Amino acid sequence: MKKTAIIYWSGSGNTEAMAYAVAEGMKDGGASAELYTAGSFSTELADSYEAIAFGCPAMGAEELEPSEFEPLFAACESHLAGKRIGLFGSYGWGDGEWMRNWSERCTLVGADLLSGYVICCGEPDGAAITSCKELGRSLAE
Q1: Which candidate, 127, 38, 114, places its Cα nearest to that of 80?
Q2: Are strands 32-37 and 84-91 parallel, antiparallel or unpaired?
Q3: Rounded to whole angstroms, how far apart are CA atoms 69 and 65?
Q4: What's the mean pLDDT when you consider all of the chain?
Q5: pLDDT at residue 35, rounded to an integer
Q6: What is the largest CA-CA distance in the chain?
Q7: With a threshold of 0.90, does the pTM exceed it?
Q8: Is residue 90 within 8 Å of residue 58, measured between CB atoms?
Q9: pLDDT tens-digit series, residues 54-73
Q10: Which residues make Cβ contacts (< 8 Å) with residue 23, sequence separation at least 6?
C-alpha cells in the first residue's frame, strides 16, 4: 500500500474541504492517506511519503499563505525531487497565477508533478470535489 500525505493550509475552510476530497480519492485508490495541516507537519516527515498533495489558497497578490504554509513548503522543496506531487487550492480573485508559479517551483526542484492541478474559485463545487478525488486517486497509483 502506497504511503501518501496531504498537507494543507486553509483560512476559510475551502481548501480544507478540498484536502478531505483528495484524501478520499487516495484511500479509494488503495493508498494509506495521512492528513496534516501546515502547522502539524514537519519537514523531516516528507521523506517518509511516496506521494504528497499540497493544498493552499491564493493569498495577497496571488501567492502562497506567507506566515505558515510558504515557509513549510520552502523547507520541503529539497525533499521533493523524484517524489509524486499534486497541488490544489482555492482563490477569490485573479486567474490562478499563484498555482502556475507554485507548479513551476515543483518542476524546478525535480518533483514528479502530476499534470493538472486543481483550483476553484471560492467554495469547492461538485466538479472541484470530483477533481480533488481524481487527484488523490492519481497520487495513489
Answers
A1: 114
A2: unpaired
A3: 5
A4: 95
A5: 97
A6: 40
A7: yes
A8: yes
A9: 999 999 889 999 999 999 99
A10: 6, 33, 35, 136
